[in-house]
Write a structure and sequence with these properties.
4 helices
C-alpha cells in the first residue's frame, strides 16, 4: 500500500502525463453543460429548434476557444496575425462540427420523430470527440523543435 507521499507523487505524475486530456475533458464537459443549459433555457421561451441550437452552439464555441487556448493547449500564438489565424481555424472547425451536430439533431427530430433535447445531447458526443482531434492535430498543434519555455 502506498503512503500519503507516494500516493501524492503518483497522482502528480498522472496529472502531468495526462494534463491536456484531463483539462480538455473538464472544459469540454463545461462547454457541453453551457451548450445544454443555453439550449434548455431557450426552450423555456419556446424558441424554435434552429434558434436554440444556433445560440447554444455560439455560446459554447466562445467558451471553448478561450479555455482551449489558455489552459488546455496553452497556445503559443501571440501576434495579432497568429491569434487571428488560430481563432479563424477554431471557428471553422467548430462550424464544421456544429453543422454535422445540427444535422444529427435534425435527423433525430424530423426523421426519427424523437425528442430534440436527447438528440442535442447525442450530437454533443460527436462534437466533443471531433473538436478534440481538430484542436490537437490542426488548430493548436505544437511546432516540433520550438521551445515553449518563454
Amino acid at each position: 500500500m502506498l503512503n500519503k507521499e507516494e500516493l501524492m507523487l503518483a497522482i502528480s505524475d498522472l496529472y502531468k502525463k495526462y494534463k491536456e486530456q484531463l483539462l480538455y475533458l473538464i472544459f469540454g464537459g463545461l462547454t457541453t453543460v453551457i451548450n445544454i443549459a443555453l439550449y434548455w433555457l431557450l426552450g423555456l421561451v419556446d424558441a424554435p429548434v434552429t434558434v436554440k441550437y444556433s445560440i447554444a452552439w455560439l455560446g459554447s464555441v466562445i467558451f471553448a476557444y478561450l479555455t482551449n487556448r489558455v489552459w488546455v493547449f496553452e497556445s503559443g500564438a501571440h501576434s495579432v496575425t497568429e491569434l487571428w489565424h488560430e481563432f479563424v481555424a477554431f471557428c471553422l472547425a467548430r462550424i464544421a462540427t456544429g453543422v454535422i451536430g445540427y444535422v444529427i439533431v435534425l435527423f433525430g427530430v424530423y426523421v426519427l420523430q424523437q425528442n430534440d433535447f436527447i438528440w442535442n445531447i447525442l450530437s454533443q458526443v460527436f462534437v466533443i470527440v471531433s473538436n478534440y482531434a481538430l484542436s490537437k492535430l490542426v488548430i493548436f498543434k505544437k511546432n516540433e523543435g520550438v521551445n515553449d519555455d518563454h
